[in-house]
Fold each of these.
Amino acid sequence: MSSSDPDAVDRPEPLVVLSHLVHRLLKREGGSVPLERVTLRVSDYVDIGDQEAADLIDAGAAEGVFTLDRGTGRSTTIVGVSPQGEEPAVITEAFGGPAGAAGTADFQALEVVTESIATALRDAGYATFTDLADADVGDLAGLTGTLTESRAEAIIQAAPRHVPVGVWLARSADVRYGRRVDETTGRGTAQVVDVTAATEPVGEPRYRSEGLDPDAVEAQYVSDIGRNEQDPVPTGLHVLDDPNHPDVPKAATHPEAGDDALPVGASGEVIPPAIPTEPRLQLPLDELLAKKLARGLVPIRLVGPRGSGKNYLVKYLCHRTNRGYVSVDCDEATHTEDLFGPLTPTEDGLIAPRNGPAKQALLNGSVLVLNEFPVMRAGAAMSLHRLLNEGKLLVKAHGELVEPHPSARIVITMNPPTREYRDSEPMNSATRGRFRALEQPYIQDIDEEVATLDAQVNASHEVVDRGTLRKIVQFAHQTRQNENWPTLSTRNLTILCEHIEDGASPKAAVKNEVWAVAEPNQYPEDTYETLNDYL
């Protein structure tokens, strides 16, 4: 670099450009990038050849700037970097915005904002994208002759994409904290809730309290999602009249919603689950499950892989019909008294039964969901046989024969007997035969899963654009078809979208989640070549 060159002082050193280029590529690719890709691309940003770039990277590795992973062959991968100095403008322009920056207040980044509109917005006191996201259409419309109501609405809809994620996280944290504030002290407080605290029965069937016919459509759950969206199907599962019962699942916007509340979409309604078709019965699963629940206390076995939405489906049906939902996670240490309650001493020295969550759910008329039922101790499972056969619960330790509330239902969930779940215990054949079994597979239709994810992750503001979301779902379907690969469930996809919201690139987020779910005998790297076909 000649000292007579008038532009020399403005040119960044090649090592600085290289280090920031690698930093951006590592972030985009998800943790590693082949050396050759960097040496071939660096000439786009600084006037050096690929061999000189390779020599700089080798020298930088000796000084701790780059971390290299030299393969058994001649391949070398860069797995880490310590960026040198300020990021050069040429890298910022190529990749868009400083790496890790919270964003800028360049309003012209919004397609509908012209230079004159941007000036008018600033003159009106709008300094950040957060200001625009919080504005009303009436506040913006008319600031200039070209800023119409429709354009103002477009600005307000687009602005949230540029708001730093920390803003949304802080606001969400404030809402959650507010639910735990003691009204007397005004301070946050812990809560200890007895799992059997809700002792009142669920509501009455709406047809009885409102004087309707039992078969009135408005008195029952109508399957109107998934395949039945265009041709809704009444299921016979009655809607109850008390949506505020403590056991009824609440929408996230409900004042008494807990941390496990059901998410809501842009319309304010609870987001429905993606509904697969039962593989053998060839009917939508929500329709089938609702019809089984409408038959009374018939035991239902819901079989599906992790993250396929088994519990969400049951919870959604309970929300739509105002039924209580009580979920118990079973394990190999689950005893009969964990389900039905122990015998405990009273204040007057006597021994009396204390209701456990399963017994109380049956008394209240809730839907009892026993998760991973087969891993439970044989004795605990056998204690349910009379309930499964005759609809009555015999609690031997209490000396009680319990006839459940007429609205009570029982559902068990379990993973399928496949290689991925080889550690799961098989169900006793005598117990297995007592259940109506339904299979909940992963969503087979890519468009349906994309629509479901879009409603969940982009409800308040766009986190992942629809095109990228589709590529992620397409890759997830590939993982589900290869039994040697780690499997990405719908739940995993919502988690990796969270990583994207935190600032990770889509490819990095996918790689992280593949690594997170991999079993010891699986290698996430086996999926990366296929991932490159999508992202």
Note: The radius of gyration is 29 Å.
Amino acid sequence: MEVAPTRLRLRTHLGILAAYAVLALWLTWPAILSLPSHYFTAGNNLYFYIKTPDAPQNIWNFWWTGYAVQHGMNPFFTPLLYYPEGLQMVLQTINPVAVLTAVPVTLTLGPVAAYNVTAIVAIMLTGYAGFLLARAFAPGVLGPFVAGVLLTASPFHVAKLDSGQLNFVTMQWLVFAVVALIYLSRKTSWWFVPITALAFGAVLYTDWYWALVTVLFGVVWAVVSLIRAEHPLGVMMRYGLFGGLALLITLPLILMLRNELSDPNLPLDLWALYTQGYSADLLGLFFPSGRHPFWSMQAEQFLVEMAPYGMVEGSYTAAGWVLSALGLLGIFWYGRQHWRLVVVAVVAWLFAMGPILYILGNETGIPMPYQLLQALPGLSTARRPNLFGVLTIMVFTIFAALAVARMRERMRPRTFGIVLGVIGVLAFVELLPPIRTTMTMERAEVYAQIAAREPGVVVDLPIENNTNSRTLINQIVHRQPILRGYVARPPYYPTLLYSPLPEHLGRMLVLPEADIISLDANALAAMQCYYQLRYVVIEPALTREGSEDRARAVMARLGGNLTPWYDDGRFRAYELPLHQDRCAPFVFLGEGWHEFEQNETYQWRWSEGVAGFFLVNPTNEEATLTLTIQAKERSDGQQVELWAINGEKMLASFPLHREMRDYHFTIQVPAGMHEFELRTSVTPEEGTPRELGIAVYELRVE
């Protein structure tokens, strides 16, 4: 039988919360001393970069949400990143519950304060949630209190704090949801069902990885709760009703993400490596604290050797030695009685080990159950298997509380006091917070001046390579749209991949003089009229030799002033003409084209079997455009199809003629950028690995 915990007075709960608040201040020290001005990280280049990109990215999340609320915008979609397409934020690490509840702090004290306060509160509430979780099984107050301390101070949890991954630090909602699901199997009152659904909603709108972890726990716990249940039908009905409410809560998320659950810009083999790198080792639960001030270097060297592909940050799932010892002792004493918890712990750890089993850093080749999840629709983006191991840590928390409660019950008070003191000293030594590095959000003067000038897109060069948040930090100051921006899940971004003006300016490349699309002054002016790339800021120390000259050459093609309006030795800033009176539709190439070729008479590109291109309607309304394709037949009877990718609709199918000629198509094009494809058969080119579709000599739109 499960323990039915006695009710505690409100005063007792408040006292416990206060104790966890003190613990949180210690674990996050010295954040409380400089809430609005500094954030703190720890580690070195073996474990994670001191200048973690995730902390400023999360600070940006608070800033953006406050900005959106102030300006009446949807916080779940930002037009300020990945301009002009914008970015769906729900699939990112925006942590909606945290950033929305912290809006008052953000608007009064700033986003850094909101980040620090949220971290402190998360550490406090995770401890309190761990206390409630342990109370569901262990009697008394002391054992559950100790267990909550060990849970929130666990090396895994603190490592996420020091890596700046606030979405994983705020795991209190996961623990609360697990508590609710446990009581759902015991309570006969139906009013508890909506409470459990709300707890799941808090998890879902904190981080969807935590939602997956919650779902796994809910499924396993529901199944084991039905075994030898006194009222199995009632349990099934309560869980069924909860599932229906949870689905309703999930529906808005599904609708927002229905077109976002794929990663077309990254190869599957790379994601396979990423997934394995974020998988726990068989013995990873017992690995040492990786950030300890006394032995961090030795521990991190060990952890690098143990981690798949050396991805320590992603695979690290340590519970802590004191928690593990107490948890194993509790399992020895109570494992048979609470076998359901043991099943949860084992299943969760099997999933945490990812697709292939690793033992002490050695790949065994043995496939693991996580491969089943990867086959489910919509879960191809789930690439952090080790997070399922948090359920195992939580089960250890429960058994640790049971062990402490048993020792208190069976030992003499003096003996128990000595044992508890030893546990406290060992836990204090093991869980000492790391020595942290003080970080600030830089406020460079050039970006402050841009904020005071006329609005326009900022091209912040060099564009980050997705391993730092430099351009996000700058955007908090200038508040203008930027190309790209550091996010957890980079979207498909054709503007920077293919569109000639932003691609070559943003990547500081030489803009070609000729192609099968127009690249003359009028064409570039039309592109600039659409993109409004106004401010180019270059930090020469971060660029390769010759990069700034190439960027200036692109600016010169636009007729821009090559004299910087700002130059402090570190930054140089230029302002480009916007050509707002020269807007016109334009076309640019996508994937599926061979290199540009020319002779004395013609210039052309061979298509592959499927060749993409984009049409841009710069107006705010749907327009009727004429697409012209100049091409000729490669082989007798060659057929070509024109497809609109949005909606996957074939617009035309036509045979090519033997002689070169223009093919005209009238297309209704909504405002903005839209992708199309030319599809045809291919023929291998003799003597080369190329496969040739059609030769296109010109592609234009009017």
Note: The first helix runs from residue 10 to 27.
Amino acid sequence: MRARYHLRFQIHPDPDPARTAADATELAKACAQAEVDEVVLLTGAEESFAGHLTGSAEDLWFETARLAKDTLEAAGLEVSLNPWVTVGHADRGRSGAPGRLGFAPMVSPYGEASTAQASFACPRWRAWIVAHYGRFAELGFRVLWLEDDFRYHNHAPLHWGGGFEPLMLERFTALTGWHGTPQELTAALTAPGRPHPWRAVLQQVWREAQLEVAAEVAAEVDRRSQGRSRLGLMSSGLDAASVEGRDWAQLYGALAIGGRAVQRPHFAPYSDTPARELSRQVWSLELQRALRPGFVDSEPEIENWPHTAWSKSDTQTWSEMAAAQLAGSDALLLNVHPMHGRRVTRFPRVTELLRRSRPALDWLAARYHRDQSTIGVGLPFAQDAAAHVRTRGSGPQALDELAVDPGPAADLLLRYGVPVTADPQAPVQALFGQSAWAFPDQEIRRMLGGGLLLDGTAASVLFERGFGPLLGLDGVELMPREQPDPSGPYAEEQVLDTGAVLSVNMQPTLARLEPGPDTESWTEIRTPQGLRWGSGRTAFRNRLGGRVAVLAATDPVQLPYDDSGQQLLHRAVRFLEGERPLLPLVTGGPHLIPHASHRDGTTRLAIANGSADPARPHIAVPAAPTEPQATLLRPLAAPRPAGTVTDADGLHLETDLPHRGWLVLEW
């Protein structure tokens, strides 16, 4: 088993076919040097985008793609196609298809109309996309990709996005009888309190319009490729997709050809970021894995933008490729050349990056597979969470409040050395924020019968829903930072048994927790004068046999990270695990980010160093393996064995784990 490289590259049209063939031949040689398996040809992307392709412009790109495909396939490469637009990414000053082709433009919740982006409800645009994909499918590409503009959100310069076009609102009116402006509708959908039933209706309208298009494109690609091609979906954040009402299983089902489809999960930033951001990559891939049906392959995007090491270091790119392999990905979709680059030989460093990365990625690919199970604290996620969220404001600007996912819980856990999983049956779960509205009572009771970690917002939601006795709380009151308080402002959190002090000074809101008589308070919140304000962290065993730990913080990621905070979180996890603790917990340095999995009788724990300083991880394992196999993956280097020492609490690494390096333990 080896890692698969799928290289995304744009070969530009040239009046001389010989030059197009030469560019493709040059690309094939670079692919051979980097051991690339497939080229994903871009058409009309970024700087080359002059609007939706039609007429002679489409003819020119079609002939370029045909000639490049033939040349690359003759060199032994597989070839896919990535048309750069579906509805359109952004106007960027282009007049585009609405005026030129008669497409109904996207309209934002503010009533703004796009100049270059089309409505999912527009029949002219639907006819165009079906014909466009169908025509290129005749060339027999392995996959034809739908770009990540196949969505309602994020269509600049529209605020939030589209989906409020007259044609779309006609569908909404047919179901509800309502007539009005986009602003009036959005105000109703985002009003504070119990969500208006129309929120779910509009999401249904959006979902059905998108599914109709997906099914039409899939049928045409199947017909005109004679079953040779699949469709792939490039997707973005799960939280924004939830606002749209996206049903992932239905969408993949509509896209499937011959019972198969492909996803490109977006999971990493475009440019350099602190290494602690690896936590987002680990949990983002894990959540998407859980939502993806078994018939869908995963090819996460490795993206530098505007591209090359001037945007993102080779070290960061390598560490993100490693994270994708840990997720058991089927291939890596490499978007690492400028789309305006034209000739691959201009970027020898990219070829060298891919060549040097391969030994570690091949090593990981041989061990991590799509059918592995992950181990950790569970991250409950309802794909329809946005239908249940309660907002503070109302109107178009409040749409952003509907975008929720388990990210805050996952980041807190991972950056403190606690592995996570999307397995809904994990013995310990963490439910933070507004997501607590998204689960029915029966599911909440199931979580409360195991181990459940809550932040202040989730505790407030569950208390309001009548679960206070199972939380061990007699009261929960959310206190915004700017709200006057007779007892004084909250300032710090003191650990009662050690005297250690942590800060809560920057929390935008804090939950004033009133523990019940049988509830332990591990910390208390104090004012600047040292007066008690409320409990900071509580622990409770309930009548269902479950254990609940509650944090007063409502934005835990904004808590200052430190050793005391890590000790408290690890203590909470061990409490929630109960009498038979199993999870490996990592210490030994800041932001040591774990990924734990199991397959075919082997447990694997991978740890990334999310700090710029070297670290020597210590792993607390209740039943420490006596002879684990340890492998050190240094950035852009071949794997090599590493030594570990077993002690009373677990084991630790004998050598330094460098910045963005990965340690893999197997037992």
Note: The radius of gyration is 26 Å.
